[in-house]
Amino acid sequence: MRDRANAAILSASCKLFALVMPLYPAALRNEFGPDMAEVFEQQIRDESAQRGFIGVVRVWFGVARDVAHSAVPTYVDWRRLVVPVLSLVASFLLFAFFFTVSSLATRCVK
User: Fold this and answer.
1) Do 51 and 92 belong together in one domain?
2) I want to staple 23 with a disulfide (CB 3.0 to 4.6 A). Which of 41, 49, 71, 103 is the partner?
């Protein structure tokens, strides 16, 4: 039963990784694509055998980190996102501050 579950996880992970591969820069993909897929499959296989589902999650966190460092910067101009992100964070902090003050004032009045 566990072997079938591991095989299903391995198959699904490899198919999902194939969908993630186009996010990597074309030069990297063209030169190392098959090697990347092979290393990923081996990592999933090893981690699944050693640590089970937690191991698979660890490999996927590594893939997410790798995509964020190598793939996302080619598609996103972070300089354009600085002002909107800072504005969103500032708005959230102001809302949290006023909500907290309002809650405290309401409790003191009662």
Assistant:
1) no
2) 71
Q: How many domains does the chain have?
A: 2
Give me 65's structure tokens.
Answer: 């980190």
Query: What is the rounded CA–CA span in Å between residue 44 and residue 42?
Result: 5
pTM for this structure? 0.63
**Residue 30 has what pLDDT?**
94
d(CA 71, CA 75): 7
Tokens coding 40 = 């990923």
Q: CA-based angle 13:19:23, to the nearest 5?
A: 120
Q: What angle do CA 9, 58, 53 make, to 5 degrees?
A: 40
Pair (65, 85) in one structural domain: no
Q: What is the distance between the alpha carbons of residues 36 and 21, in angstroms, rounded to a whole number?
A: 9
Based on the domain organization, do 39 and 6 belong to the same domain?
A: yes
Name the stretches of the chain with pLDDT < 50.
Answer: none
pLDDT in tens, 37-57: 999 999 999 998 898 888 899
